[in-house]
Automatic annotation (TrEMBL):
Listed name of the protein: Large ribosomal subunit protein bL9
Stated family: Belongs to the bacterial ribosomal protein bL9 family.
InterPro entries in the cross-refs: Ribosomal_bL9, Ribosomal_bL9/RNase_H1_N, Ribosomal_bL9_bac/chp, Ribosomal_bL9_C, Ribosomal_bL9_C_sf, Ribosomal_bL9_N, Ribosomal_bL9_N_sf
Organism encoding this protein: Oscillochloris trichoides DG-6
Start and end residues of each Ribosomal protein L9 domain: 13-40
Gene3D superfamilies found in the cross-reference section: Ribosomal protein L9, C-terminal domain (3.10.430.100), Ribosomal protein L9, N-terminal domain (3.40.5.10)
Coiled coil stretches, renumbered: 37-64
Described purpose of this protein according to its UniProt entry: Binds to the 23S rRNA.
Keyword Ribosomal protein: yes
Length: 167
């Protein structure tokens, strides 16, 4: 019996595929549960049209993602933050901050969940951060975290012996 799958069925196939199954499996399980319909010429034609439309949409989204990747690949994002001892930040730079900086600097809205940052940035320095637009479209932005004032913060330990007037 030939059936056209309407949903993904584990160990059988994905939605839109034409499968040859035993009569009992099709009549007693797949068709009553709504996982498949009997494969007629009309159903097969509709499935092919849906698959073609889906491929066109996927290709269009791939082109959009590649154009977006070309715009943001290699862009440097500068963050000026307050730092404490050993160039550690008060707070951190997160994927939300990076998404907001891309929006402000380039006018491109990027979903924060697509920015691959294993953990928030907590030290000054330069970091290469991937932005996963699609599974194979991953531009890299350069995140540069600098301390306020341009120099690393140092702890003031009070006046030294040379600064104290002699009596």
């Amino acid at each position: 019996m030939k059936v056209l799958l309407t949903h993904d069925v584990e160990h059988l196939g994905k939605a839109g595929e034409l499968k040859d199954v035993s009569g009992g499996f099709g009549r007693n399980y797949l068709i009553p549960k709504g996982f498949a319909v009997l494969a007629t010429k009309g159903q097969i034609r509709q499935a092919e049209e849906r698959m073609a439309a889906q491929r066109r949409r996927a290709e269009a989204s791939r082109k959009d993602a590649q154009a977006l990747a070309a715009r943001i690949n290699g862009v440097s994002l500068h963050f000026v933050v307050r730092v404490g001892e050993q160039d550690r930040l008060y707070g951190s730079v997160t994927n939300v901050d990076i998404a907001e900086k891309i929006q402000a600097q380039l006018g491109i809205e990027v979903d924060r969940r697509k920015i691959e940052l294993e953990e928030p940035i907590k030290r000054t320095g330069a970091y290469a951060v991937k932005v996963r637009l699609l599974s194979d479209v991953e531009p890299v932005v350069n995140v540069i975290v600098e301390p306020e004032g341009g120099l690393p913060a140092t702890i003031d330990e009070g006046p030294s012996d040379q600064d104290v007037p002699q009596l």
